[in-house]
Amino acid sequence: MSLSRKLRLVTVGCGYFSQFHHEAWQRLPVDHVGVCDLVPGRAQEFCHRYGVERAFTNYADMLDQLQPDLVDIILPPDQHLESISLAVECGAHVICQKPFTRNLTEAAAAVALAGDKQRFLVVHENFRFQPWYRKLKNLMVNEDNGSLYQVRFSLRPGDGQGSDAYLDRQPYFQTMEKFLIKETGIHFIDVFRYLVGEPEAVYADLYRLNPGISGEDAGVFMLEFADNVRAVFDGNRLADHPAQNRRLTMGEMLIETARWTFKLDGDGRLWQRSHGNNLWQKIGLGFSDKNFAGDCVFNLQQHVLDCIYNRRLPENHGLDYLRNLEIQQAVYQSSLQGRKIRLSSMNTAEVGN
Length: 353
What we know:
There is one protein chain. Helices cover 31% and strands 22% of the residues. The protein is of the alpha/beta class. The strands form two sheets. It has a nine-stranded mixed beta sheet. A six-stranded parallel beta sheet has the order 3-2-1-4-5-6, sandwiched between helices. It folds into two domains: 7-124 and 297-317, NAD(P)-binding Rossmann-like Domain (Rossmann fold), CATH 3.40.50; 128-285, 2-Layer Sandwich (Dihydrodipicolinate Reductase, domain 2). It has helices spanning 18-26, 42-50, 59-66, 80-89, 104-116, 131-140, 180-195, 296-310, 318-337, and strands spanning 7-12, 30-36, 54-56, 70-73, 93-96, 121-123, 148-155, 201-207, 218-224, 230-236, 251-257, 260-264, 270-274, 281-283, 341-342. It has nine helices and 15 strands. Helix 4 (80-89) runs parallel beside helix 5 (104-116) and helix 5 runs antiparallel to helix 9.
């Protein structure tokens, strides 16, 4: 492609979360030439709503006719591998929603397909692009903090109670056999890696509180890092936390170092307290409250465009994201077996489900 023109973008999938992708693309310098959905009329409705040129119900036809530079795949995991294969075969870079493919074997195959065609494959893992985590990352690299002790996130969206849990937004949550970690905890595996680095071991205890769903909806996992650093995810989708919008941060974070403690609250505000001091000081953080969770979808998509134009490897490129899936697999394995799992002993070939 020529870098003197806008990228030709197509999107496939018009489900609930795709609205955030499409709204963000409206504000980015792309030519959004096509949108596809199997449900008759839905792609056409998205064309009208978001100013897309053409609607399709056949994905292969859209790729063949429009020859895009970039494909944004917003589909369920069982359709990812085939959709990625068709996209890279036509020469396009790919962004793919998570959960990424059905399992680690398929994810590795998708990464290999993109690598063979020298195309970017990026997983739409947007939490690390939330403005509070970008700011916390900058704060954590300050040598004045002293040693890092622990990062803890308490997930409390409060949307998982009762027989009608999730039905108004994403009803397929109810039937996911693996839910809390595969759907939500994976975000924080990625955030912990972004903030702290590569973990060496994991211990987990997962369980189900709502009998009306199939998968786990509560539990904890702890990642161990070098120098005795820990990252703890404490998730409960039935309990809530104080916030104007409980989906903005979905919970609260605490980062403890030798000299400072940093806190993220449910309204996206950051606070810091020095060791031995009882007073919390607010940290300045300006962010846009558009779209989803601090405009993180826009931030991710803008990052991908910048990397394509400047020929830099994007964050959350597919090969790196395989490590998130290995850790996710270890979380489930640890909970099932009731023991700590050493991550250094894992590899993609050993954990295929």
